[in-house]
Each structure stands twice: as C-alpha cells, then as structure tokens.
Amino acid sequence: MSVEQHRNGRPALLDVSGLVKEFPVGRGLFGTGGVVHAVQGVSFSLSAGETLAVVGESGCGKSTLARCVLRLLVPTAGTITFEGIDITNAPPRQLRPLRRDAAMVFQDPFGSLNPRLRVASIVGEPLREARFGSKKEIEARVWELFTQVGLNPEHFSRFPHEFSGGQRQRIGIARALALHPKLLVCDEPVSALDVSAQAQILNLLADLRDQLDLSYLFITHNLDIVRRFCDRVLVMYLGRVMEISTVAELFAAPRHPYTAALLAATPIPNPRLTRARKRAPLTGDPASPLSPPPGCPFHPRCPRAQQRCHDEVPALTPDDGSHRFACHFPLEVATA
Amino acid sequence: MSFSGSQTAGVADSVMIDPTLSVSFRARFVRRVLADKATIVAAVFLVILLLLATIGAPIVAALTGHGSNQQFFNGLTVNGVPLPPFSHEIANNGQPNPHGAFFILGTDRLGRDMLVRLLYGARATLAVGLGATAVALVIGLVLGMVAGYFGGVLDAVISRGIETAMAFPSMLFAIGLAAVLGAGLVNSIIVIALFSWYYPARIVRMAVRSLRGEQFVEAARSIGLGHITIMRRHLLPQLTAPLIVYATGVVALNILFEAGLSYLGLGVRPPTPDWGQMIADGVTSDLYRQQLWVALTPGLALVFTTVAFNQLGDGLRDAFAVRGSIR
Amino acid sequence: MKFVARRLLIAVGQVLLVTLLAYVLFYVISDVTGASPAQRVAGHAATPAQVARVAHLLGTDKPIYTQYLDFLDHIVHGNFGYSFLQRQPVTQIILPAAGVSLSLILVAVVIWLTLAIPIGLISALRPRSFTDRSLMTGAQIAIATPVFWLAPILSYLLAFEPNQGRFLGISLGGSVNVFPIEGWISLTSNPWQWLHHLMLPGLALALGFTGFYARFVRALVLEQLDEDYVRTARAKGAGRRRVLRSHVGRVVAPSIITLLGLDLGAAVGSVLFVELVFGLPGLGFVAVNSIQNLDYPVTVGVVTFTGLLTVGAMTLSDFAVALLDPRVRRPTG
Questions:
Q1: Do C2 and A31 touch (CB under 8 A)?
Q2: Which domains does chain B possess?
Q3: Does the structural domain A4-91+183-325 have CATH classification 3.40.50.300?
Q4: pLDDT 10s digits, A18-40
Q5: Which of A108, B52, C64, C160 suits A251 as a labelling partner, its CA being 20 to 30 A distant?
C-alpha cells in the first residue's frame, strides 16, 4: 500500500497498488508461450491537481501503465483505485465515472483522430456517448472546447487532415476535456510534434491545468519537460519503479543509479556545464521485457551492481516520504 | 510558466495550412472518376443493361411481337437449323420470307427470338449475380469484422474456416447442393453466396486488423464506446471504399459462376431464359457446329457484362485510391 | 518444429472437415430426392427385397456415421472405398482420371505462365502506352470469358472449321487438321498425341488465367519498379534487365508461386467444363457423372482427393512463405 505524503495536502485521485500487467506472446495452441512482463509491481498515488511524470526508456512499460490506469487494458494483478472506486476489474457499467472524469491524450496526432470524421464530430463524441444533452447543447459545448484549446471554432466541420500536427493535438485535447475530467493521462503528447508546436501545446496544457484544476499523469521520455512542467516524477525501468520523488529533489539529488544515468545523458545546451558533468555512461541495451533479469532489473547495466542485486528485488524505500527509490546501494546524497 | 519560443495559443491556429486540402473526399473522388473514360463507358453500359433487363425486354418483345418463349416454326431452316442474325423467317419454299417475321439476332434451337431471350436472360444474370454478391458481402463483412477486430481464438477459427471453405471444390459442391436444393433463382443465389463470401471476408479481416491498431480506435475505447459502436461508427466507413471495389469483382465472378451453374442445368428453371442456359442450348448435340451464333451471342453478352463490372471495379479502385485486388 | 506440427494438424483437420461435409451433403441428396443408390444399382425393375439386398451389399443400409467411419477407415488404409455403380475400387476410377486432369492442368499452367509473364512484363515496362492498354484490355476480356463458352468456340474455330476446310467462313481449300476436335490419348501410349490432344483444351483453360496473371504480374512489377531499392540499383548503374532479373524477379516469383497454389482449387471448376466439352475423362467428368448416378463413394473420393491437393498446396505454400520470410516464423526471443 503506497502511503506517500500528498504534496498539496489534497486527497488522492488515483491510487495504484502492485500493478502487474503481462501479455502472452507466440501462437498459443501448441506453442512456446512467452510472456511479456510489461508492468511488474508498480505502486504510486496521484492527488487532485498534481502532475506526475512517468519517465523511462522505450519498453519500460510506461504506455502500458497509462492504459491500465484508464482501463483500456485489464491488469493481470494489483489494484487501481480512482476516486475511491476500485476499477481494476470493474465491468463497463461501473467504469462510467472513470470514463467521465479521466481521459487520455494520445501521442500520435495523425492516428488518434478518425480521418473520416469531421473534427466537431470527433470532439463531440464523448458528449454524445454520455448523453450530454441535445444536439444544440453538444454543439455549444464543442464550440466552447475549441475556443478553450485555442482553435478557431469556425473550422469545426473540417477534416483532421486539414490541420497541422499541433492543431490536431489540440483537437485531441479538446476531445479529452469534453466531459470536464479531473485527470488527463497524456501519453507522450508532444513527442511527435516539432519543437515550436511542442512549446505551444505544453503551454496550453499548463494553462488548462490552472484554469480547470486538472491532474496529469504525464508519460514522457523528455526530462526537460519533466523539470519544467511536472510536480513529481516516477522513473520506470523494465516494468518496475526505480525512483519516485518530487521533481526538484530528483534533479538535485537522484538516489537511483539509473536515474543518475538518465540525467547524465540529457543534453544540456551549455558546453561548459556539459564538459564539467560527471560521466556515468549506461552500457548496453535494456533487456527484453520477455525475460527480465532476476532481482533488480537494472543490475546488468548498473556500475554499482553486486550479488545482492541479482538475488533480491529491491523494494521501494523508505516506506513513506516524498522521495522513494528501489535500490540496494543507492547513491549518496551529493553535497554539490 | 512559459516555454521559449512559444506564442499565445490561438494566433497560429487561425491560419489554415493548405486550402486545397479542404476539398472533401467526395469531390476528389468525383474528379478522378470523371477523368477515367473506360470506367465511364463501363458504368454507362451497365446502366443501359439494367434498363434493358428491367423495362427494355418487355418493350422489345412488344415491338417485335415476339415472346421470349414463343417458338417460331418458321424460325428454323428446312433442316431445323436456327437462323443467323438479321434473318427473315423461312417460307414454305425454303427461302427467306421478306414479309415474315424478322429476327435481329437470329433464332435458337427451338426457333425462339434470340434478341428477346437475350434481354430477358439479362434478368436472371443480374438478379442472381447481384443478389448472391449482396448476401456474400453481408456474410463476409460480419465474419471479417469479427475476426479482424477481436483477434485471438475467434480470428484463428474464422481464418481457418475461410481457408477450409476455399479448399472446397466449389463447382462440385455447388452441383451437389443444387441437386439437393433443386434448381431455381433463390437456390442459385444461396449456393453462389455460400461459395463467394470468403472473398470479402478476407479483405475485411485484413483491413480491420490493420485499422484496429490505430490510435483513434483506442481513443474511442477510452471514451467508453462499446465494441459494436466502434465497429459501426469508426471501422465500417473506412471499409466502404474497398468493399465497393471488391464487390464489383465478386459480382463479375458470380455472374460467371451463375452462368456455369445454369449451363449445367442447375440455375433458373427453363423455359425462363438465362444466358448460361442459352449457351448450353447452343452447345448440346454439337449444335454450334451448325449454327455458331446460338452459342456465340449469349457468350458475348456474358463477356461484355463481366468486363464492364471488372472495369467499373478497376476504375472505382483507382478513384478511391485503394490498393490491392480481390485475391 | 512446433510450427510445422501445428500447421499439419490444422491441414488434416481441414481435409477431414471437407470430407465430412461432402459425405453429409451427398448423403442428404439421396435422402431428399428419395432416390437411393441401391435402387439405382438394382435397376428399375428390382423388387423391394432385391433393393434391400443390394443396399446391404453396398452398405447403404447402415447409418450415416457408420458409413463415414468406414470411409475414414478406408482412407487410413489408403483406399477410397468401392464405387456403387462400377464394382471397382474408387481409387481405380480416380487415379487415371486424376492423371487426365493433372495433364490438362499442367499443359494449361505452362501455357498461361509462358504467355502471362512476358505480357505482364511488357505492359509494366511501358505503362499507359498503347501496347500496355491493348494488352490489358485483352487481359480483361480473357478474364471475363466463361470457360464453358470459350471451349466450344475455340473448338469450333480452331478444330472443327479447319477440319471442314474453312476458317471464319473463308475457304481454306481442303481439310486442315491442326488441332483434334476432342478426345484423350494417354501419355504412355503416345506422347506426341497426348500433347496434341491437350493443346486446345489447355488453351481454353489457360486463357482466363493468362489474363489474370498478366494483370497481376504487371501490377507487381510496376509496384516494385517504384520501390526505393530499384532506384538505388539503377543509380548504382545496373542495367534495366539485370535489375528486373535479379531484384524484381526475386520478389515476383514467390508471389506467383503462392498464387498458383491458391489457384489449384479454383482451377477445378473450370477444368470440369473443359473436360466436358472436349470429352476428356478427367476428375471433373467423373465427378459430375457420379453425382448424376448417385454413386457417391466416387463423388466423395473426388472431393477428398481435390481437397487433399488444395489443402496440401495451401499448407506447402504456408511453409514456403515461412521459410522465405523469417518475419513470419514464431518469435524466439
């Protein structure tokens, strides 16, 4: 049971405990069924109004985690509680509050909108599905949403292909906001955009957060965004949590070797600082989620690894507190 | 909090990126079709054929005064050989009678007017061809959709089923089935549909499988849409284009299938005219050696109709910009 | 290995399903039409007692599932049972007929590949030219031509008429016998005549497929010519022909082979018509007769045989694809 302090003193909106998600692969019938261990025991909680980043390399399970939270996938084990309701295995009817109060913003601005539908139809779909009101009421709300995300409402009968990537992402955000959600799960919402569009969308998300008191579960691999945009960070590796902390503490004093390596690999646009940085290169590629290493999943690449790391999966410590990490030999708190 | 290089949301978005892209799918489609002459010819031909089959046949019958099953004793030569096109009936002295009945396309084995029979025969061909295809499309659409969308065991079962169905020697089974169910229009439709549903099923399955991974389907799920709604609202519209294209191909195949069945005597019941049957008439007891036209005319009609459907399909495929063919 | 075993098991299941359905179907025929094979064998004048005795001899008085199990038992021992009408093992009827049909298909395949590949290539190399358009229109017409019509027309134009000293109405001044009108000569008795008698039927069967394959080859080659790897090869200085042969050919050839495998099943229907018109005692001919005579061991035998071939062809091509394309094989990681 995760018992983190809630930074802002507000109640937990989302509580994830011991989440496990596995996928069978290979042709069933006779066959060698392999299993992809996408998520192996992840726990955290998210308060109202908070922005939690989930970072990691590709294949670490962050997208799977996001989809489990929204029940687009059914967890193999563990529990997910949203607004106090256990949604882990709930049937569709009991998921209605989830569908209303949580929404997803997808990564691909091209693929996440049905090319055959007009954008007004796309944004209005959640409204129609939830029986929001009459046609006129829905139209009015769609208009409102367009304005809210910075799109010209007069374009609402156009098709997605007529918009730029950044604009399409705004449409996706408008759709997500349709039913006044409390939580937005953003799966790398700006990775597919060019730099200026990225900035615009992030600004938009920040503004919306203030205006609408939103919580974000923000999946990304870009630490820069994390630093500027998020309150807390969860670092994942091969399906497990390596470290979870406030943004400030993580960047100032990472405890997990993996986090340190990630930070060291982030380019800093200042040659002097870059050169002064300590090198802690990551060797090799992450193992495949089909056969994660025993014990700590990071130990094969970890410069500090020892026998214990192979034998025993490290638990997240300390049990409470705002900064937790899963390592047998964590980094000392640096004084510089 | 603001990011470098950012602008106030809204300014950049009032500018549309490319005005030509605002042309809708429909307009582009129409433009492409109109540029394709062969397809237009095919489409016109088919429309005319449809009109001829429905209202043209009785009109011609009335104009010439010849019924579709009316046997003209004088429509055969003294040796009993049918007349070639543009012939008058034969008088008692064995010579053509310029004041007698005139046969634009000649006569058949029983002295019946070929033209009238041909026109009425179009009805059977089109009815069975189109009808069977419609049924096959529905079956194929449902099964393909279910297989492609749900994947897993359901897909495996349906795919194997499709393969197995394709392994059946369709003609033999069709013959067997027709022998059980009896000949006739409806039975022909059933039999033919049973052996052509797997074409659309395969196409639909492949299309749905690739569409299913798209994020807009995930988005629809995240809104809470049920499976059937997603299939109906998000997947089906994307399928109409390829389906229409393949439908024309399947119609062409089924027309030939139907002709084959009635050639063997298993189609619509005689004396209702049917092109396949007319060919059979012209071929039995080597009649075609004495008068080729009896078999030639309905065959040509079949060829033209099938080519027209195929050409229509090709043209539509280019206009929709769909890839691939029926196989 | 597991992949192979699994695929084979599925193939066996498919064949079983085909035979089961065939059995059910043809059993139902006799049930529904009220005519019994025993009756047919015994003859019109037979008394009910005699018919019953015949039925017992034939085994048709046993329940259907027993008959089916007997059938399966026969299969395992390598035969297809006994024909009702002809008092000989079905295998003895089917095998020679299969030889005929396969000869016909073989000749047809050679003809259509020899014609279609060059035609498709020529068209692809001159897209949208007059040559291309005419060839493809011809191909379209070829696809649309029903075999059962083409066969008599061809027979008339190329065999009968010349035989009578005419061609398209023009007198030839004497009988010209390029093609025999009908009939079958076995390979073993006279190879040249065997081929000679199969030319016209083979052509009739092949024409539709020629059209289809020509279009297919054209589309495939055009697609490949557009691909980046071809452009790279050309940029490196490879001549057009070499590119075609080594690069494009490598992609097109397997596709044609796969298609051939699938077409085996489709061919059976057309084969039937050709056999009927040209009087070739092949499987189609035998099967149609057996249906009309309620001799359903023969019918089921033919269906099983063709089913085996088709499923075999599909399975083999699946294996071939798996061998050639490592992506298809099961993930080992």
A1: yes
A2: 25-57+119-320 (1.10.3720.10)
A3: yes
A4: 999 998 876 544 445 678 888 99
A5: A108
Say whether the peptide bond before residue B271 is cis (omega within 30 degrees of 0): yes
Structure token digits, residue C163: 């035989």
Backbone angles phi, psi at C97, to 5 degrees: -65, -40
Give the range among A62-66, A81-85, C154-158 with minimum mean pLDDT.
Answer: C154-158
Q: Which residue has the tokens 């089923």?
A: B161
Single pTM value for the model: 0.80
Reported ipTM: the value is 0.81
Across the interface, whether the CB atoms of A207 and B9 are under 8 A apart is answered: yes
pLDDT, one tens digit per residue, over A192-247 is 899 899 999 999 999 999 999 999 999 998 888 998 899 999 999 999 999 999 99
Chain C residues within an 8 Å CB radius of A30? 2, 5-6
Select from C18, C26, C156 the Cβ nearest to the Cβ of B168: C18
Torsion-angle region of residue C297: left (phi > 0), alpha (psi -120 to 50) or beta? alpha
- A-chain residue closest to B240, CA distance: A116
C-alpha closest to that of C265 among B316, B198, A263: B198
Cis peptide upstream of residue B82 (ω within 30 degrees of 0)? no
Residues in Cβ contact with A52 at an 8 Å cutoff, skipping those fewer than 6 apart: A44, A46, A215, A216, A217, A218, A230, A231, A232, A233, A234
Q: β-pairing, A215-220 with A51-55?
A: parallel
Residue A80 contacts residue A39 (beta carbons within 8 Å): no
Alpha-carbon span A324 to A331, nearest angstrom: 12
Q: Rounded to a whole number, what is the distance in angstroms from the first to the last CA of chain A? A: 34
Q: Which residues pair with C82 in a beta bridge?
A: C89
* Residue A32 touches chain C, beta carbons under 8 Å: yes
C138 close contact with B: CB closer than 8 A: no
The residue whose two tokens read 């295998």 is: C91
Which tens digits make up the pLDDT trace of B184-225? 888 889 889 988 999 899 889 989 988 888 889 989 988 888
